Amino acid sequence: MTLIIVLLCILLLIVMVSVMRINAFLSFLIVSIIAGIALGIPLNKIAGSVEKGIGDVLGSLLIIITVGAMLGKLVADSGAAQRIAAVIMNICGEKYIQWGVVVTGFLIGIPLFYGIGFVLMIPLIFSVVYKYKLPAIYIGLPMLAALSVTHGFLPPHPSPSALVIQFKANMGLTLLYGLIVAIPAIVIGGPLFARTLKNIPSTPLKSFVPVDKPEHELPGTFNSFFTALLPVLLLVVAAVLSFSAKQAPGLNNLMGLVGESNVVMLIALITATLTLGIFQGKKMTYIMELYGEAIKDVALILLIIGGSGALKQVLVDSGVSAQIAVMLKELHMQPLFLGWLITAVIRFCVGSATVAGLTTAGIILPLMVATNTNPNLMVLAVGAGSLMFSHVNDAGFWMFKEYFNLSLKNTFKSWALMESIVGTVGLIGVLLLNQII
Fold this sequence. Notes:
The protein contains 20 helices and no strands. It is mainly α. It has one domain.
């Protein structure tokens, strides 16, 4: 009965947004309250769940998305995105541009949290799209597939790292096996799948449409790459220094601050304001106007993401994930497949990949130990399951839809299907590795 209620609530949300054309944020609020009542949360606790869900998801994404939008707007307006796109195109050629952006997304995705990588790559994707008149989904989806896979499979991302600790796996081996599994998942879910989506209409946000400037007005190649990728560099440096700072509390505390994603984005924005703004002859008032426009462009996205957090929290507080996990645990299946399946079902119901992975960990751990299953592969199986079935209760679904300005139907055909492809290919890779190791 619980699963039926969840499915009906999700169906209601889809009908309200796509058929009745009700604002997605309002739809989330209404469905969250209905779901809370139907799932038996005490009436005086439902509003608190909604507020907590909005606060949790926006607390972790608000600075990243707003500051990232400002950075992306400046990167696009200054011509840096145009310069980067031109360099990548010269190296790869138009024939292989997909593979160029995939490699870029993969390298950036390893050290970078998904939200930061997403907002940083948007100007680069749109620059390639508008400069060379290529389909937005054809170029954008492969890069975002690479970001998504690194987020779900590879340490040091939060969920895989936490699973490594809970399963007592080896971080290095998990990363190595994860790279082996990730590459075919990215190739199949990214460039190969995107070739079937060339006809999907997409008019990306105008805020990130780069101004086509003459060559002499563009910032230098080093300046463009350095400024756009500074968040990646800062996170990598902070991670490396944190290992050598264990014996120095002062330096360790400093790295703890500088390595925080929100602080990294702020440092990157301040740097970009100088390197792509002031030093390029732009006035501070003009730069601040750009930043104001960027915030307006992502305001609705933030509300929608907050709404998805409200529904996620209601489902978590109702105990849905725990009930479903217990039901599935009774099935007699191969442990790696069962771990993937439990995670995938919880992900479908709750929306959060991290919540799905960490909920599954507590359920599958005793079975993993009893069957002597490889813990490194279990981390990857659960990670693959956490990428399955992205839909209307997932913040990433709405980020992709709104940034690329897609219909709900086409978001399902592109983003949601891509996520399920990489999750399925990931499972197959894990099961094959299990036969070899």
